[in-house]
Amino acid sequence: MGKYVLRRLLMTILVVLVASVVVFxxxxxxPGDPVKILMSPESTVAELEAKRHSLGLDRPYLVQLGxxxxxxxxxxxxxxxxxxxxxxVEGLAERLPxxxxxxxxxxxxxSFVGIPLGINAAVHQNCWQDRVCMLIxxxxxxxxxxxxxxxxxxxxxxxxxxxxxxxxxxxxFLIMPVIAASLKSxxxxxxxxxxxxxxxxxxxxxxxxxxxxxxxxxxxxxxALKNSLIPVITYFGPMLAYIVTGSIVVEQIFAVPGIGRxxxxxxxGRDYPLIMGTTIILACLIIIMNLVSDLLYxxxxxxxxxx
Length: 307
Prior knowledge:
This protein is mainly α. Helix content is about 80%, strand content about 0%. Helix 7 crosses helix 8 and helix 10 packs antiparallel against helix 12.
């Protein structure tokens, strides 16, 4: 397993490097002048040219790309935010805990709600419990997270005044963002778990366990669930990636000062260093989360050879 992890981590460097080149190229060729956004409308042409020269934007594309790659991957310096005037690394380090907090809580809520829903639906196939669980899963999957977020703000913040609408603080500030970030994953996990459990429940060894008179809890959780988790784990990689990227919308709506919100602000402000720094961080997070998903295969079923 150690060689597999090392090989995947080495591949991460290549993937992040390619992603950085692609994003830098897209940002470079997007129409618009970031200097005009940074400077006041009354600035003269000479002032604009001086600012463009100080930022290095008057250099050719390959020169700018080479400077960025050298600073980022050789000197490990992501530069300074053009808007805030602070270090990109320090700014992202301050925002990263908020994104981690929101993402981890959303993953836990999705798992502890979606998987039991799927198990309950499979055990009571074609009964009212199955229909209710699948209806909940369908609603969670179909409803856009940003729409649910806005509805929760209107209902629980403006109408009932139960929860704060924006910002960060205690646990009450996390309730609505976590719900909005985890809804789609809850629905998908419920449907995936139900499908996998139904396939396992029909297996011969499960029929044998029932015929031996084993308790239902032991058959379901001791035998069926463990073997049905492999297809569910397959979804964990995309789910983790979705929660990270989906937090961009959630953080923007609830004014959570995480990486997602910084990414949106950097795009609207054409803050190239912050855009590239956020891209690198998000790419690393998604790749690492997919690696964790692959390692879970080995934990659930030791017979699987990762190499």
